Structures are given as C-alpha cells and as structure tokens.
Amino acid sequence: MARRTELPHYTVPSLTIEEGSKVAAILQTRLNSLNDLALTLKHIHWNVVGPHFIAVHEMLDPQVDAVRGMVDAIAERIATLGVAPRGTPGSLVAERTWDDYSIGRASTIEHLGALDEVYVGVISAHRQAAKDVEELDDVTNDLLIGHLHELELFHWFVRAHLESVGGVLSTEKSSTEKSAARSAGSAAKGAARD
pLDDT tens digits for 55-68? Predict the structure, then answer.
C-alpha cells in the first residue's frame, strides 16, 4: 500500500505542486519495485545451480547493474519533483503490493521460470505507470519508457531459455513464481528425455 506523503514545497516548472506530488507517488512505487527486482536478481544469481549455471549466473549481473541505474534515475526524479524518495528496506517492505520472491536454491531453469513471472509483474506495472504519467509529465514518461526498453530486453533474455523451437513458453500457463518454476523444470526434464 502506497504511503501518503506531504505535498512538497516546490516541484518542476509547468507542474502544479499536486501534479508533482502525484507523479512522485507513482515513481515511488516503481522505485520500490525496481529495488526489489535488483535484490531478487542478485538472489537468483547466488542461488542458481545445475546445467547452464555460469551462463545464467553471468547473464544476471548486467541486469542487476542496469536495474540499479534505473533505481537511481527514479530516485533522482522523485527528488527533482520536490519529494524525498524512500529507499530503505523497511519502506519497500511496508509499501510493496507483491510477495517476496519465493524460490531458494534451485536449478537455472526453475529460477528462470520464476523470473519470467517477476518480469511480467514489473513490466506490466511499469507500463501502467508510464500511462498514468503520460498526460502529466513528459520527462517522467520518457524515463519510464526508456526503462521499459531495457526491462523488456532482459525479459526476452530470460524467456529465450524457456521457449521451445516452436515458440511456446514453458511458463505460458503459469501465474505464480512457484508454478512457473515447476512448469519450466518439468519442460526441461521432458526435453532432456527426448
């Protein structure tokens, strides 16, 4: 649940104080989400095992770095709008609307299946945030759209491991991290038997 903030004393030119505050509140949700994503990616990086370990392990570090850059850009935009960004673990946990990542040590393909679901959630919410600020603030909208380009690219990198030659995702009928991990793992075991 997003925390209500006091109205700032100033914001960027051409926005009202109320508009600047609204944009900052939307960005705070994205800040929380991307901070969580960076931590989740690093958690997966440390906990993948099995075939393709090194490929997945090394694929994730540039994603972590890029997401941390997005976090910084969003926090700085919130501050530019006259609002104090909240980046503490406590505020993230108190304000998030999703559950903590639920997979510990697992195979690369299981983690990638779960990560597919994570990226679906992050990207969908980021896209909605871009729509929500579209009429209010071009600069913030542009920032979020730029992030979407990178997030969708990283999502494709993940999905490339989950896709069959026929273009079917092993996680296509999954709606939770755990079910996506199971589906991806089962599909990989089935492919190994063939």
Answer: 999 999 999 999 99
Say if residues 111 and 48 touch (Cβ distance below 8 Å): yes
pTM over 0.85: yes
Going 175 to 181 to 187 to 190, the CA torsion angle's sign is negative
pLDDT, the chain, mean: 93
Q: What is the torsion angle, in degrees rounded to the nearest 10, for the CA atoms of residue 59, residue 69, residue 95 and residue 41?
A: 10
153 closest CA partner among 72, 66, 68 = 66
Within a 13 Å sphere around the CA of 166, how many CA atoms are in the beta-carbon half?
Answer: 2
187 in Cβ contact with 159 (< 8 Å): no
Cα 53 to Cα 45: distance, rounded to the nearest angstrom? 9
Neighbours of 139 (CB within 10 A): 15
Note the pLDDT tens digit of each residue in 139-149. Answer: 999 999 999 99
The pLDDT tens digits of the residues spanning 116-137 come to 999 999 999 999 999 999 999 9
CA–CA separation, 165 and 176 (whole Å): 24
Rounded Cα distance, 107 and 122, in Å: 22
